[in-house]
Predict the 3D structure of the following.
Amino acid sequence: MLQPLAQNIVYGILIGALYGLAAVGLSLVFGVSKFLNVSHGELLMLGGYASFWIFKGLKIDPFISIPLTIIFLLLIGFILYRLIFSRLIKLEVDKKIQNSLLVGFGLSTILQNIALRLWTADDRSITTAYSGTSFELAGIRFPAVRLISLGITIVVLISLQIFLKKTFTGKAIRATVEDWQSASLMGINIHRVYLLAFMLGCGMAGVAGTLVSICYSIDPSMGLNWTLKSMVVMVLGGLGSMIGTFVGGIILGVTESATAFFIGGNYRLIAGLVLFLVILIFRPQGLFGTKEGDR
Amino acid sequence: MLKLTEIDTYYGDLQALWGISLEVKEGEMVSLIGPNGAGKTTTLQSITGLLRPARGNISFDGHDLLKVPPDKIVDLGISMVMEGGRVFAGMSVMENLELGAYGARARKDRAETIEHVFETFPRLKERLTQRAGTLSGGERQMLAIGRAMMSKPKLLMLDEPSFGLAPILVDAIFEMVKGINKQGVTILLVEQNVRAALELADRAYVIENGRIVGEGSGEALLSFESVRSAYLG
């Protein structure tokens, strides 16, 4: 009983880290520009397919090709922002949230159908020579690719954290999150900040997509599920706290796998949504977030 | 140095400024006084590019400000302290000051400028690593002014720097503003505290319902009957 449970929890943590990574991208975009981009999951899907085709076509190891995938998604982010989202930026906050929801929803449908058309509805996953490798510790299995993915997730999040804390551009992003008018008075080009944050969010989705395509599988309709997970985690962790978001991801992953273990696999998705509701009712600022007032 | 000619500014469909003209000369301290909602803040925001006038002209040191994007205006030497200071509460005092020197012109000199700011506001040096949100009201206002000074402004615009502060702090803040003016920084001051604003200023403008209704030296306006009865009671 104990060993399968521990195994389950380990798997929960490993997938939870990816939830966290996906949510950080969504949360960054929301924090900076108040866009709730519900096509975030589709961007993740694009990242997954990018790695898949780079692996198939160019025979480049998916972990090695992550920088390429990031560049591809940054580019997609640039185009989407310039073409679509920049048109919403001048709206008031509540209108911005509503309209970005609509735009994101349309975009997710479009991206899904493009993917369906180009790549069919088949499940795909990247199988490398080492995909089956795993380590065992106290009878618990640690699949190699998922461990490496956890490592990459942590590296990406720490890099982002350092970027936001230490660089002038990162500080400009944080300043814009807090008060865009004040930021503008400092000489910060806030429209560039919005663009950059959106691109970064897409880049993070790209990395997450790659890791999903290595550890699990991808298909054109996977996006909605990942958008939902990201939103649950974003609320769970609380806005503005990146570590909180990451931990929130792991909590969701563990909750899901524990539910699957104790109640049954069919209930794992429900667990996340129940958690979401409970948090919204009892701690709307998130587990690690602060209330607006005491910031 | 700064010249506004016949400015009309709108908030959405609502016209807030009606043909505002005013001038600030180099080295001067000019006050803009008037009741709540008269358009004082709107005037300052029109200068910084947070709002864009629909008609009229704003020139600063020979530049047409209406053609300069908002993020470049600070590089020309204009800095504004908004009402309440509006510091970045979640960021440290040091980070706030660094961001004050974000513009290209000020950034390279920021190590030097920060020492200068500490001379004016020694309290900030003691609080460097503290989050700005944990500062007291007076300290926040000092940080806001210090942050504005980090951009090495030629013209510093202050919107209600005394707002919400205890009387003893109000005096201290005004002293500091006077000191900054003595260092050669031109000041445009918006104030509810009319007596102090007029006593401090070389010249002042009175604004009502989005129009300039009076202009003169601080002393002259202090003795001006309508100003006395309207603002000084």
User: Anything to note?
Assistant: The mean pLDDT of chain A is 91.
